[in-house]
């Protein structure tokens, strides 16, 4: 199954019955899959007139308390940012999928990770975060889609699946969940009062600055809980590692092979793979900073996550960048060279 | 054991489909695998390639730097990827479109005039599956068993007529000496 199809099927199995989108390579298979399946199961598939329309349709369904998603690729996700900020400001859960391609501008159609800043630092205006999940296999494309819905509902905030063109286009065997999704109550949803309760209001407009400040502080208390409870990462060969690679998505797959090869050459390399990019796994990196000689941030960008690696490690050790961008992917050799250089010449 | 296979050619030559066939074949044999396409925005023309990793363990990187097996469907693909094949590896070249011989002497090379054969046996456009048949015969990575079952899996019911043709092309490649 293709990664994009795995997202779509996993979303349906997670109880998502409403999809709004607008086609763009390399994520179009998500929409194509939804267009086939949704009508058969009584769901909604709607190709909107634009990305902006699609994200605002997501807002509407989410306010009504239903699981809803949209998907796009980098330029399209930029268009959605206003709506994403409104979702965050209204405390509405939803899933936004970004199967990244090279940028900036229209860029290209090959894989990229250069929307890291946009995804993890807000993207739209105002004080807010998304839960950002970064799959590194087709299996995780499915698993993290389900998780993204659960976390979004639990913490009343939008979540983002930040994949790249490789993950979307790649086929791997995948096992899909076959148990009923657990839905939580949403007493805040706009479901009609039926004259039995007070009106619910979903809104992001607060003209009284004191009230807006209070709400933002409350929201950040919730973000703190997310960081405490939901930070996820994979640690590979880190017990005795001297060189620590930090990489997510496809970069982590390439890096894992390079770690194995470095170990065969006698260099103790390890890998920390963030699964949540926000909240970023600061703790394991801070701990590693006391043990390793150096960090290498492997990215499909000009170096974006590297800033978080430096922050998390308090710059106690050098942090090197190993990168390709614009749709290119760091090669196995490039990562291995970076490890050997960081380890000190031709050890 | 892990085998990395790269299939490369023009868009429209069925490079991705041949890879998909091998991927499903591997799946039916209970192996771990990844299938990664790479192509431009064109439906026809342009360059297309497909990287496949078949393994008994979970697949590490789906991106191949040095394939064990290369199927070169045209000259630009052979020019570009012949130097990357692992020493001791295998290259299969469509000799009806490639008019040069391999430069490497440390790899096994099979020349199959697949495009020409495909026309002769009445399955034009299926040079990809002729090459696939030859790969099954010579490389021992996957078995000939369950070829039909695999084809049923990847050919949609609406294109059932393509089943016989694909099978014929695979057999042609398998039996080509």
Describe this structure in words.
The complex is a heterodimer of chains A (347) and B (177). With 347 residues, chain A is α/β, with parallel strands linked by helices. Chain A folds into 2 domains: 3-189 and 217-230, 3-Layer(aba) Sandwich (Rossmann fold), CATH 3.40.50.970; 233-344, Rossmann fold (3-Layer(aba) Sandwich). Chain A is built from 13 helices and 12 strands. Chain A has helices spanning 3-13, 28-37, 51-63, 74-79, 81-89, 116-120, 138-155, 165-169, 209-230, 249-264, 282-289, 305-312, 332-344; strands at 18-21, 44-47, 68-72, 95-100, 131-133, 159-164, 233-236, 243-246, 269-274, 276-278, 294-299, 319-323. In chain A, α3 (51-63) packs parallel to α5. Chain B is α/β, with parallel strands linked by helices and 177 residues long. In chain B, α1 (15-28) packs across α5 (147-154), α3 crosses α4 (127-139) and α4 (127-139) crosses α6 (161-175). Chain B is globular and about 40 Å long. Helix content of chain B is 36%, strand content 23%. Chain B has one domain: Pyruvate-ferredoxin Oxidoreductase, domain 3 (3-Layer(aba) Sandwich). Chain B has a 6-stranded mixed beta sheet with strand order 2-3-1-4-5-6, sandwiched between helices. In chain B, β2 and β3 form a beta hairpin. Chain B contains 6 helices and 6 strands. At the A-B interface, α10 of A face α1 and β2 of B.
Outline of the structure:
The complex is a heterodimer of chains A (347) and B (177). Chain A has 347 residues and is an alpha/beta fold.
């Amino acid at each position: 199954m293709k990664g994009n199809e795995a997202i779509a099927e996993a979303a349906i199995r997670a109880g998502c019955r409403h999809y709004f989108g607008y086609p763009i390579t390399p994520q179009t298979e998500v929409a194509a899959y939804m267009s086939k399946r949704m009508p058969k199961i009584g769901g909604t598939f709607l190709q909107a007139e634009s990305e902006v329309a699609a994200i605002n349709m997501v807002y509407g369904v989410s306010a009504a308390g239903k699981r809803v998603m949209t998907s796009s690729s980098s330029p399209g996700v930029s268009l959605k940012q206003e709506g994403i900020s409104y979702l965050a400001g209204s405390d509405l859960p939803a899933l936004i999928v970004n199967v990244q391609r090279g940028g900036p501008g229209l860029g290209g159609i090959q894989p990229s990770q250069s929307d890291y800043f946009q995804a993890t630092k807000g993207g739209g205006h105002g004080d807010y975060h998304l839960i950002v999940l970064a799959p590194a296999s087709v299996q995780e494309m499915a698993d993290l889609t389900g998780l993204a819905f659960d976390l979004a509902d639990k913490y009343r905030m939008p979540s983002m699946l930040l994949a790249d063109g490789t993950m979307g286009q790649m086929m791997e065997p995948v096992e899909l969940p076959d148990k009923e999704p657990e839905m939580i109550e949403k007493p805040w949803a706009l479901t009609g009062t039926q004259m039995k309760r007070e009106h619910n209001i979903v809104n992001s407009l607060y003209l009284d600055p004191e009230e807006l400040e209070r709400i933002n502080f409350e929201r950040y208390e919730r973000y703190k809980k997310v960081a405490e409870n939901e930070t996820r990462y994979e640690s590979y060969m880190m017990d005795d590692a001297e060189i620590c690679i930090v990489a997510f998505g496809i970069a982590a797959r390439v890096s894992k092979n390079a770690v194995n090869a470095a170990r065969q050459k006698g260099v103790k390399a390890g890998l920390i793979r963030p699964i949540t990019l926000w909240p970023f796994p600061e703790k394991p990196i801070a701990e590693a900073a006391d043990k390793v000689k150096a960090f290498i941030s492997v990215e499909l960008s000009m170096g974006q996550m590297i800033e978080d690696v430096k922050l998390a490690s308090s710059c106690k050790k050098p942090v090197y960048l190993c990168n390709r961008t614009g749709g290119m992917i760091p090669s196995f050799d490039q990562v291995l060279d970076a490890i050997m250089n960081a380890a000190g010449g031709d050890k | 054991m892990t085998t990395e296979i790269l299939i490369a050619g023009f868009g429209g030559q069925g490079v991705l489909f041949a890879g998909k066939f091998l991927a499903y074949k591997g799946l039916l044999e209970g192996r771990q695998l990844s299938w990664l396409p790479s192509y431009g925005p064109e439906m026809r023309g342009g360059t297309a390639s497909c990287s496949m990793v078949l393994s008994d363990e979970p697949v590490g990187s789906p991106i191949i730097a040095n394939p064990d097996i290369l199927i070169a469907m045209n000259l630009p693909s052979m020019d570009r990827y012949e130097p990357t094949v692992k020493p001791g590896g295998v290259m299969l070249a469509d000799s009806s479109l490639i008019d040069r011989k391999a430069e490497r002497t440390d790899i096994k090379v099979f020349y199959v005039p697949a495009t020409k054969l495909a026309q002769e046996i009445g399955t034009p456009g299926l040079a990809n599956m002729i090459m696939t048949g030859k790969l099954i015969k010579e490389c021992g990575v996957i078995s000939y068993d369950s070829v039909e079952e695999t084809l049923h899996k990847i050919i949609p019911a609406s294109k059932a007529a393509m089943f016989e043709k694909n099978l014929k092309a695979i057999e042609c490649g398998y039996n080509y000496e």
